[in-house]
Amino acid sequence: MHETRRLIEAASALSGQLRSAGVPHAFHGTVLNAVLSSATHCDEIYCIVEGGNAHPFRRVRQACVDNEDFTATPSPWSNRLHVTYHRFIPPIEIEILPAGEEGPRRLDGNTTMTISGVPFLTISEFIRAKLKAWSLRRLDRDAEDAVYALSRYWDRVDINRIPEQDMSELVRQFPTAAPAWKELKKKYGMR
Prior knowledge:
By secondary structure, the protein is of the alpha+beta class. Helices cover 43% and strands 20% of the residues.
């Protein structure tokens, strides 16, 4: 478990590198709920990166190549890239995900929001990403993140971005999400 402020500092530093290289990106994971709730600790941070003319992993490696604070390490067995920020002990590891895999394909003003100068997925896109992860992996942690965000910020969610079947399944298994889901559907005139 890491201090949230350290994760945000690492995210800010990586974001600066990616922004300088013109790479669209946004962060998500438990860190988003921690930032929104002012939690002091969290243990999960991802960075979603758009491709473009090159694979997203290549774009990240190129953006970090000349910075001694970062090391980019591929994980061939899982087709993932991990970027390690070395300014802290222990170092902070950020998993890089290609856009469209566990988040939106396009990272723009409709799918991202800025908090403390760092781009994050919007609440709607965060819930969508966590729902997708939960439907694939069935980890309670993913479901709990989605439930937390939905319960606290349902009035900021675009229901058109939420897969109804996945949300209905989540509500069946995690009934604490039911009141917020009901209110969100009511807001959009759905039953």
